[in-house]
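Obj.: predict assembly geometry.
Materials: sequence records (below).
Method: joint structure prediction, all chains together.
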Amino acid sequence: AQKITQTQPGMFVQEKEAVTLDCTYDTSDPSYGLFWYKQPSSGEMIFLIYQGSYDQQNATEGRYSLNFQKARKSANLVISASQLGDSAMYFCAMKSGNQFYFGTGTSLTVIP
Amino acid sequence: DGGITQSPKYLFRKEGQNVTLSCEQNLNHDAMYWYRQDPGQGLRLIYYSQIVNDFQKGDIAEGYSVSREKKESFPLTVTSAQKNPTAFYLCASAEGWDSFYGYTFGSGTRLTVV
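Observations (raw structure tokens):
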């Protein structure tokens, strides 16, 4: 069964606008962690943000925030004030039990 | 600076050859992982190691082998038994197998069969 689902293969956003990248997950564990990574064309995976399943507040890191809706099992990434350098692949991931699951990614293109 | 170094960045392999991808970390992390990335398929786990001299198969281990003789090093060998080895390979490490902190990734090796 798919553990992490990213339904948007590609997204476009105008520079300086905000964009939301969708992620839903599936787990029966009460304790889990949710992550977002950025992968630019150079290939390295860059950690962006983390949300624990027991965290009461949504995680934020600079222009990145994670919209965590536990009942809906969603963990959407919001990027505010998009910049040209934000153009990349974005992966949602979940640590559940002893396994780490990745989604198939969303390609984000920022338009000048 | 601490991090993970993967080498080489690009690798070309002839049919029937074994090749070894290097992964070295100086983060003092216990756990290390190898992932394969194909377009549109996200990351798939090949092998992982929780401690030195121990490693476990992931979801797509067939045609691959690893060793973990030192904490810092986790090389991956792509054998001739791997029928479709052309892909992007990522190495990662974490403080511990049960750590809730994210992985630190290397910059990847792109393997092409010629």
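Conclusions so far: Chain B touches chain A at residues 33, 35, 40-43, 45, 88, 90, 92, 97-98, 100-108, 110 (CB under 8 Å).
To do: check interface contacts against the pulldown list.
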